Fold this protein.
Amino acid sequence: MPKIIRRERLVPNLHLIEVEAPDVARKSKPGQFIIIMPDEFGERIPLSIADWDVEKGTVTAVFLVIGTSTNKLSRLNAGDKVPVFVGPLGKESEIKKYGTVICAGGCFGIGAIYPVARALKEAGNKIIALMDVKANYLLYWEDKFRAISDEFYVSSRDSYYDCKDYIPTVLKNILKKGETIDRVVSIGCTYLMYTCAEATRAKKIDTVVSLNPIMVDGTGMCGACRLTVDGKTKFACVDGPDFDGHLVDWKELFSRRKSYFDDEIQSLCHWEGKNFP
Amino acid sequence: MTENKKTLSSEQKEELKIGFNLEWRKELRKAIPMKERMKIERQKMPERDPNVRNKDFLEVNCGLDAEAAVKEAQRCWDCANPQCVVGCPVGIDIPGFIKLIEKGDFEASARKLKETNSLPAICGRVCPQETQCEVVCSVGKATGIPVAIGNLERFAADYEREEGEVKLPKIPATTRHKVAVIGAGPSGLTVAGDLVKLGHQVTIFEALHVAGGVLVYGIPEFRLPNKTLQAEVAYLQDLGVELKTSFVVGMTASLDDLKVQGYEAFYIGSGAGLPSFMRIPGENLIGIYSANEYLTRVNLMNAYKFPEYDTPVFSGKRVAVMGGGNVAMDSVRIAKRMGAEMAAIVYRRSRTEMPARAEEVHHAEEEGIEFHFLTTPTRFIGDDNGCVKAMECLKMKLGEPDESGRRRPVPIEGSEFIMEIQMAVVAIGQSPNPLIPKTTPGLEVGKWGNIEVNWDTMETSMKGVYAGGDIIRGGATVILAMGDGKIAAREIHKYLGGLDKEF
Ligand SMILES: Cc1cc2nc3c(=O)[nH]c(=O)nc-3n(C[C@H](O)[C@H](O)[C@H](O)COP(=O)(O)OP(=O)(O)OC[C@H]3O[C@@H](n4cnc5c(N)ncnc54)[C@H](O)[C@@H]3O)c2cc1C
Ligand code: SF4
């Protein structure tokens, strides 16, 4: 069973997990994801790959603690083992020289977008990194991002950094300045990606979002992750996770993501009741 | 997808003849006259009460006891020219194993089965006997009620596992040849078992975290207990097969990567994992599952034990399952067990065209499943939250036969009606898993996405790469998947042996 090398709380509610998985590390590409199961009773949950190290043979992901599975994950420590850590899954992000690319991330997406931004930088693009956080103490990996971006903005609701506006406003302000933006990549919660896509729709700037609907197997077998893109049903796990944000049926995606809302609460209550009576 | 024709080879015929002429077989034949044998009634498989079992996941069939098994075995005439063997896709020596049961040597009977079928406990439970071996049985032709070959097969295999001693065969010295088997379904497991017994080093790469393929994620516990399957997998591991789970060939490593790692021959048994949808409006509403998702949640992820297990699954009060095959039957019976008040099969043809095993249809009826034949949904209707609340259907009538020989259903105009539902499962078929063909340049596929093979050898368009089971046939059966594996194992052995001589 794959062994955890490191599990670290980055900021409140966001954790990093680094797992020994040499086969996965060797094949990892920006934009791909893994599926992890915290224990034998757990769910198979997809997490974007936030980094990897071929020599060490490890793969890193960042996750937000929400339900039972992520709560369980957040309680694992170096040396513990997980029954499933499979990947890399999904298509890699398209990396080319586009010109100027805005990388807009929030929440776990700050980690997830990092390898994409790094690869885009290596491909010769000018990178404008745009991080969205609720408060200043929720920002992580600032150094890592400063090292690979040409411009770096943080918007936090407490106005601690550059501004307090939610990301679409910041995005629109950048666009208004007149600089040619060739592409926008956005990773974070579904709402953040949706608003980014809406912000660029009028100007028709290619906007790539990395979608994370509910999945089970992650290899195209079950269709749990299906969504509508450009009027066609797609499987996020094998046709994505990257899609053109202007073609995604967001309404359907929002509703499908909430499918198990009540069950998730019940599951968490059950787990908490058992572990913290 | 043309299939192998079923004929017995001259060696098979010779072996059957030798068996037929054994002294003890002659004596058994003499001991009870045919007329007497015909008077024995087919032994009823003990089953759990339908109204109890439709609320739990314990096995429906309890298995014959030794006395009943011997009696059932006595019904078989031990024909000189047994048609059942021809009917069996892998040509099991059926009279051979049945007569060993009649003689009382149950372990020998299991060994006899295992000469041609490495997973008899499974086939005895899930094979469609009524269209294969039992349909051609002479006793059946004479009396209308064939020998219960499947039940006997299950009896012998279960006996060996539970009461007897499972003996590990002697394995020859290692040949040092590395073989990669992709997919731990029945097809891959068969290849692995056969090749490891010949001394090859076999590794199975499996995408999921548990071995078994459809047998573990698809077929439910009440039809095939997981422990039966895992015992077979453990047996292969004891023989020396290496099992690498959570390894997706094409993603974690490509076929070429594995070549670089020293694998010389490959068997692709990656199954028919791509679910088909109906492509009608509303299909992405909440509460509509592909059968694969529904079955995977329940069987592989144990959602029926939620919240003890974390994976949830819907349990609608009114559930419609589209399709008429085993997949549909399993899904609808699960829905009933999950508490549905109405669990219904909606099938566009009539009862006679249903491809499901007869026993499953019968069990489903006993358990209170509704059947809506000659009915097809045209759209799903959702509520304000995006959850399915109803389905519009159309009545059909049967027209001319199509290529498959089944009469084609044609819609009756103006026959629309609304069926209120809270959940739907789409079980209208799966196509071959595209992941390996997509990531393996040079591998030829047919128009259904099936990997093309030479049907005599199971070799693909790439040298040293073989394939079989659902990936070449589309959704087929366990026994056909295993039969392909048998042929491929023999050919892979020859392929590796050929190389041996060159050194
Ligand atoms: C619900 C259901 C009920 C059925 N009932 C019956 C029945 O009663 N009787 C009967 O005879 N048949 C039945 N069938 C059909 C039968 O199960 C299949 O024909 C048979 O399992 C096919 O075997 P296989 O080994 O080819 O593929 P599978 O059993 O599908 O196994 C393929 C395996 O390969 C793995 N895999 C796929 N891609 C990769 C990859 N890239 N890398 C690594 N691993 C990979 C999959 O995870 C899977 O474990 C049923 C099928 C279903 C779905
Ligand atoms: S055809 Fe029927 S009676 Fe004859 S050998 Fe086979 S099982 Fe026995």
Summary: DSSP finds 21 helices and 16 strands in chain B. The two ends of chain B are 37 Å apart (CA to CA). The mean pLDDT of chain B is 92.
